[in-house]
Amino acid sequence: MHSSTHSPIPSAPTGIASQIDVGLPWPLRICSVSISIFGILLFAAILGIVVDKIMSILESLRHGRTAVAVEGHTLLLNWTEKSDTLIVQLALSMLSEGGGTIVVLSESEKLVVEADMRDRFANVSSEAREALSLMKIIVRTGRITEGWDLRTYGAAHKAKAIVVLAQGGHPDVDDKKTMRVVLSLRNMEVVIKREHHKVKLDGFVVAELRDVDNRGLLKLLDEGNLDTMVSHDVLGRLMIKSARQPGLAKVWNAFLGTLTAFSSLTF
To answer: What pLDDT, on a 0 to 100 scale, did the predictor assign at position 250?
Structure first.
């Protein structure tokens, strides 16, 4: 009987103990763990920076602090009790053109202006609502007397028309602010001329004044693209003429008395 002896084959080491026996040296292990921890911390820091940047952009969008990338629009400076009526009239006048773009730059918060705008537009006529649906209305928050804000948040240098509305406070205070706005626009013209070799703004400027005595001062800044309107003076003249000629009041009412004054006109 032939008997054979078999030598046992050693099995591969398993378990943590075996890994410790055949693994890397401890200094190298410590270095690897340190690099891993540092990589995790670095990734967390980069992720936090990216999240903060995204939140900052969303916050700027929410509060109307982002640049306006439009041109050929109508820029309204200030949000007053007359702004909604003016927007409706502009929307009706642009109805035949398929709508347009209006940028409202105000020192009030964007959320407040948008909420007030929704409340005012809730009761307009069906024709005005149709015209507004074709309009793109952009609301931004900024200082209307600062050239940088006018150019960044309002794109004033690319607007086809700029309307400066009086806030409705003391006439002298409102007119001083209107003059500062026009001066900022004129200063912007100097910057545009230096950067783009353009002589003046593309848009026509219409400025509302509260005191007729200040019209002469504002006219000194006129370079052929500025017109002024003294609201109190215009209303006073209309009232006096309508009192002297009662039939004239009906004529003015046909043109200005309703929110659909442009509905029967074709441009």
So the answer is: 81
Q: Which residue segment(s) compose the domain that 164 sits in?
A: 74-256
Same domain, 141 and 222: yes
Per the structure block, which two tokens stand in for 158? 């690319």
- Neighbouring-strand partners of residue 164: 77, 207
pTM summary value: 0.71
Q: Which contacts (CB < 8 Å, 24+ apart) does range 117-123 have?
A: 117/84, 117/87, 120/84, 121/84, 121/88
- The per-residue pLDDT for 76 is 94
Residue 261 lies in a domain: no
Question: Do the domain assignments include residue 58?
Answer: yes
Inside any domain, residue 67: no
- HSE, CB side, 13 Å, CA atoms: give it for residue 174: 21
Residues 92 and 126 in one domain: yes
- Mean local confidence (pLDDT), 103-112: 90
Contact 92, 265 (CB under 8 A): no
Residue 44 lies in a domain: yes
What is the rounded CA–CA span in Å between residue 168 and residue 180? Answer: 16
The C-alpha angle 67, 69, 74, rounded to 5 degrees, equals 100
pLDDT tens column, 146-197:
888 888 888 888 889 999 998 878 888 888 999 999 888 888 777 766 666 5
Phi/psi-derived region of residue 232, left when phi > 0, alpha when psi is between -120 and 50, beta in every other case: alpha
Residue 264 has pLDDT above 70, yes or no: no
